[in-house]
Amino acid sequence: MQSVALLVLSALMLTQIVASAKSTHVRRTGQITLHGSIERVFPLFGPLEEEKWAEGWKPAMKYGGNSEEGTVFTTIDPHLATWVLDRYDVKAHAIRYVIVAPELRVTQIDIGCQAEGAVETRCEVTYTMTALSDLGETLVENYTQSHHEHRIQQWQTASDHYLQTGIRMVHHE
To answer: DSSP per residue over 82-95, as a string?
Structure first.
């Protein structure tokens, strides 16, 4: 696991040396409550399980699986990006992704889940972003708290729909 983190860190350092960004950095946190037990909800944030509820989510797996730390996959929408599943802790119900969108930004997504009784799960979702270029700076600056809250509210709507029906909702984001 340390070798994957070291590889990502090395790539970030190289990209930052090459890029001319002012290193704009933001952190956005919000909470959602999902109508399902923590045992049903938590796995849905894994890269393969997310495809069940998130329209347009199409990870191209390079290594690993849904719950294996060190899993690597890529996405192309909205930008080409390489994702590393840095943490998948079933006991703590915590997951972390590190995402590198070359010459744009680095994003860390932390999701922590807590049972709220037997049938609800509260999830804290934190995005931490650092710009790697001028365009990346614009993207990071435009990722406001309001935008973050809107995004995770859409997650809540789509994942709740899936938890209730077993069917992916169309046009959730």
So the answer is: EEEEEEEETTTTEE
